[in-house]
Amino acid sequence: MTSSTRRPVLMRALLASACAVALLTGPVPSAPAIAQEAASAVQDLVLDNVSLAFGDTLVTAPKVTVSGTRLSRDDLLAILKADAKDGKDPKESWPARLQRLDAGSLTMPELRVERRDGEKRQVVTYREVTARTIRAGRISELTAAGATLSVEGAPQSGSGSYGRIRAEEVDLTALARLYSEAGNAGSPFQRLYAALSVESIAFIDERGTTVSIARLTGRDLAGRQTPATWRGAVEALGDGGLAEDDRAKRARAAGLLADLAESVSVGSLEATGLTVKEVKGEDPLSFSIGRMSYAGGTEAGITLAEIGFGAKEAQGKVGRLTLTGFSLEPTIAALRRLSQVPPAADKTLPKGAAPAPDLQEAELRRLTPVIGTLTLSDLGLDLAQAGTVPGPVVSGDPLKAPKLIALPPLRIGLRGASMSFGPPKDGVPTQTRFSLTGLTLPASAVEGVPGLGSLGLYGYRDLDLDATADTAWNEDSRELSFKELSLSGKDMGRLHLNATLGGIGPEVFDPDAAVSGFAMLSATAKALDLTLENGGLFERFIDAQAKVLSLKPDELRKEYVTASVIGVPVILGNSAAAKAIGAAMGKFVAKPGTLSISAKAKNGEGLGMVDVSTAPTPAAVLDKLEVNAKAE
């Protein structure tokens, strides 16, 4: 329900809280600026007007109190200088300095973090910051009573606030190392914090869009070093991404994204009481999630519970939405391929040779991850309908025309849904399963849908449907199997179909539409099984048609039996297979139960488009099939 122009508002607001916490716990805060290694005796020190600059970020604290430390005032003042020296290394790195950090506690009544990016200016001000039990750059507990946030100069400028912030086992040395020191794929993961919680997050932009989160928690965030460092990678990506026309820039961006994707590990995240509201404009909207959680590891998954959304044209709710089995492995592999810049020799082409095509679009499609399985339960949706209907007649004045009122909303329900996607081939999943359970809606909503549009004429006012589509591709056999295509309805029946197509090679998944389209021409139909189970629909169909034709239902049924037993074989060529199909259909019409028809290519390879299009009669096609038909 959120338009494309509104999504950045939500994302920026959500990221604002994470950025604020990162600034509080990372190498930006003045914890690195105030802790250093040992002097001779434990003492308490107070520093006034502390100021540190880290590139585009400025950190200031009017007052810093360091208690239970062996560091001297000179040690602390030396650390605060950008060219701090320890007597050996004239440019000692932040990780090296933080390694010597040791104190009983560190407190700041106020900590201000300001970052500028062009015309954009972001300021986060923390209140009553306290770090307890600091040993070798690791903080046992880091808290803040709250914080305020302001963003200026951005397309969605705004302001926000945070309630109590608390982090456990924060490793400032590891954070500084990730941000400032290069590593490689073999670098070990380093835990950055054991637990984190932020309460009462709120943000409002200049257009009046508000975002709030009652509580945000996380556990076991870890990272490892990258060749460009985390800070270097983020800054480089700001200069150009995968949409760049220059292949060299695109390749570098792909490599940086792959490095970052492989450098972060999250144990778990949870947000409760998330709401988004936009009340200005002609189309106000609201969105809420009662609980949103992520669990990492081998059983990684995302769960959203108690989802609600509303806009001018629609109102709805979802009880639960879950995603499991998600994997970025194919995406990272595709990014690695994109990061390979073509050799310089390719730029010099032989005389008359055409330049190599730009594979950007194809490669971007191959970035598709393993989506896994998405499940949904308890969906309720009310859609506004255009138009009016006459209202109730005014009592006492039967000649007066009733007042027109708006059509009631179209109500759609869904008890459950599931979508599963297997590993992708060139960006297309090779296995899919889609199922709907308990799809409820008025029959009037499907009036224009082929096969369903006449249900209202057969006496169905409200529909209760189930549907399933299950497909899988086998590369070795070059087959695409429709394991199950089914549709069933309450008091209607069930239609079930499965089929096998042959000649489906990897070319069908080629990102080039011309290549994949041509490959489909070689597809063959190898087998098909169709089952129709009557659950009341056929009787309603007979009754409705009988009224239209002014016949009795039994009279019309007999005509359909005759048409099935005699007419169908004539149309299909009067072969043995045609007669079997006609006889089974006639038996089903006479006593509707279950009708089953199966067909299999005799040659084992299947029938192609040429076989069907060049056949002189339907009988010529049936002669190439093994057909079985029966009714029960």
**What strand order characterises the main sheet?**
4-5-8-9-7-6
Return Rg in Å.
34 Å
Class by alpha and beta content = alpha+beta
Number of alpha- plus pi-helical segments: 15
Strand content: 35-45%
Q: Quick one: how many beta strands?
A: 28
Characterize the main sheet.
6 strands, antiparallel, barrel
Provide the residue-averaged pLDDT.
84
Care to describe what's here?
The chain is of the alpha+beta class and 632 residues long. 24% of the residues lie in helices and 42% in strands. It has 15 helices and 28 strands. The strands form three sheets. Strands 4-5-8-9-7-6 form a six-stranded antiparallel beta barrel. A two-stranded antiparallel ribbon has the order 16-17. The two termini are 48 Å apart.
Concise summary:
The protein has 632 residues and is of the alpha+beta class. It contains 15 helices and 28 strands.
